[in-house]
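We were asked to recover a plausible sequence for a given structure. The inputs and outputs are reproduced exactly as logged, with field labels preserved.

PROBLEM: sequence recovery
POSITIONS: 547
GIVEN STRUCTURE:
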């Protein structure tokens, strides 16, 4: 079967192609449209049909729209409730549901040849659940979905056995841990449904001193669900305007919400483990599953041996999850996700043609990984563009900015390059077989950068740029079998410096989506103070930077 998955309702519009149960391609529309998270002026802030990413997925898979057996849409308008009745008071929700009901005709227009009768609505949280549990392809796993909202709910807890989902509990709106986190994100002066990761980073600078208030307002109900009562945020901490500096009170509020989130999630997973009675693996999905601090707490203090999160755990992942869900319903076999590199890639000739059009001086060294390692060892900053782009919000060695972790000043230096807040950490990329002595308390392997690890005390002074204020780091481990070019770069860097770790952060600047195409990479290199661009087998150096 040929199945195209679509997400196009709340945010993070995306498309994914699954053929005979295998994941062929998946990409977010923002990488094509260059609008981060698909944000537009209200009311059309997120209603971005993923026309470009869907067409690319089909082209990559050599599938004509007329050949599709199904197109999944990760929201079922027939299950949606009235926003006011659910306590959401969203003036645009009725229009959103009308848009969803019209999805078959919209998609048939965008993809000529598609039979609109092939469009199948998949409940939002079922699509989330499938994006994780069906991508790991184990026979028996428990699954927990936590996000802002779906049709009527904000959470799903259940179990998969042989690809079939048994739902144990679904928390009804308006109670929502995801919306709670969105509320505090906005109160702290960040962009709602976009900058929640900034709250997680800011939390490490604070203490949870408002915890008693949050425990009264946000609490588990003992039946697998929870309540989130309205909170008068200004009575706790005054709101921060976007241009204002954050204060200790702002950090303390972030720390409080983060800590209470972890407590409630722990209660939910303990209930789920008791209810299912046997699964050793917990699969997480939904926007809250991108909270790597909470994920680590669940693994460390929860009842499961393993916690698995796929790299596009937010709404973008529902495009994949919807397609996998229908594939399994139709009897297709399960195939595990091999990696996050599911987006666009370019041939060497195509990259060189862009370099020639840009009239840039470039070289083609015998070993691009060695050139990069040498530059990093000399404390240069490298823009790294290799292979197919990543699915999800994390740079995982395909669209990355790289730097030396041994200089503490490189944290501020990279945040300046990217034009972002200085409280934000950068992440370490480390060879898989070298990770454990350096990074403790957290899963190894950790290929998708979705957990945090304690940095061993003897290493904190050696790699200060990647150590967060709380002594942790959000680690990406690199397996040479999966990423030979990245591994070769890391191996040479270790020979030169004694450090098997390199800073890895996303190749973009503030407010812009991650670089996707060669043209994107050249534009970013041209506007940011980066010393070297490694793009495919080619190297471009900033004028005045020695080779």
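RECOVERED SEQUENCE:
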């Amino acid at each position: 079967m040929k199945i195209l998955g679509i997400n196009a309702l709340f945010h993070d519009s995306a498309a994914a192609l699954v053929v005979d149960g295998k994941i062929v391609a998946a990409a977010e529309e923002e990488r094509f449209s260059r609008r981060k998270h698909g944000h537009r002026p209200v009311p059309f802030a997120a209603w971005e049909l993923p026309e470009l990413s869907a067409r690319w997925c089909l082209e990559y898979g050599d599938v004509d729209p007329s050949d599709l057996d199904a197109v999944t849409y990760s929201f079922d308008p027939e299950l949606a409730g009235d926003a006011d009745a659910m306590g959401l008071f969203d003036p645009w929700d009725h229009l959103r549901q009308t848009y969803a009901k019209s999805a078959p005709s919209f998609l048939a227009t965008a993809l000529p040849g598609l039979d609109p009768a092939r469009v199948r609505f998949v409940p939002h949280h079922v699509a989330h659940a499938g994006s994780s549990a069906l991508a790991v392809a184990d026979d028996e796993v428990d699954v927990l979905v936590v996000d802002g909202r779906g049709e009527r709910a904000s959470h799903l807890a259940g179990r998969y056995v042989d690809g079939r989902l048994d739902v144990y509990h679904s928390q009804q709106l308006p109670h929502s841990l995801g919306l709670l986190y969105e509320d505090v994100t906005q109160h702290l002066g960040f962009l709602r449904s976009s900058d929640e990761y900034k709250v997680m980073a800011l939390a490490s600078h604070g203490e949870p001193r408002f915890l008693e208030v949050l425990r009264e307002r946000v609490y588990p109900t003992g039946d697998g669900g929870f309540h989130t009562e309205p909170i008068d945020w200004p009575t706790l901490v005054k709101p921060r305007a976007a241009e204002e500096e954050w204060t200790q009170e702002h950090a303390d509020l972030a720390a409080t919400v983060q800590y209470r989130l972890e407590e409630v999630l722990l209660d939910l997973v303990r209930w789920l483990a008791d209810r299912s009675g046997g699964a050793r693996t917990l699969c997480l999905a939904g926007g809250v599953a991108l909270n790597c601090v909470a994920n680590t707490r669940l693994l460390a203090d929860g009842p499961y041996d393993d916690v698995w999160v796929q790299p596009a755990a937010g709404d973008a992942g529902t495009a994949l999850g919807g397609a996998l869900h229908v594939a399994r319903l139709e009897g297709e076999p399960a195939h595990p996700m091999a990696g996050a590199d599911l987006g666009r890639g370019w041939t060497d000739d195509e990259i060189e043609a862009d370099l020639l059009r840009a009239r840039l001086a470039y070289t083609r060294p015998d070993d691009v990984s060695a050139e990069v390692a040498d530059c990093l060892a000399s404390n240069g900053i490298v823009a790294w563009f290799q292979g197919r782009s990543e699915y999800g919000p994390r740079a995982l060695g395909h669209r990355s900015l790289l730097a030396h972790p041994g200089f503490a000043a490189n944290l501020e230096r990279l945040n300046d390059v990217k034009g972002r807040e200085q409280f934000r950490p950068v992440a370490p990329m480390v060879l898989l077989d070298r990770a454990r002595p350096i990074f403790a308390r957290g899963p190894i392997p950790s290929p998708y950068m979705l957990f945090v690890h304690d940095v061993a005390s003897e290493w904190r002074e050696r790699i200060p740029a990647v150590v967060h204020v709380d002594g942790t780091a959000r680690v990406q481990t690199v397996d040479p079998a999966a990423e030979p070019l990245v591994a070769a770069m890391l191996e040479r860097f270790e020979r030169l410096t004694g450090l098997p770790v390199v800073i890895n952060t996303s190749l973009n600047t503030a407010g812009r989506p991650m670089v996707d195409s060669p043209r994107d990479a050249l534009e970013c290199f041209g506007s940011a103070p980066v010393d070297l661009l490694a793009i495919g087998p080619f190297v471009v150096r900033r004028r005045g930077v020695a080779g």
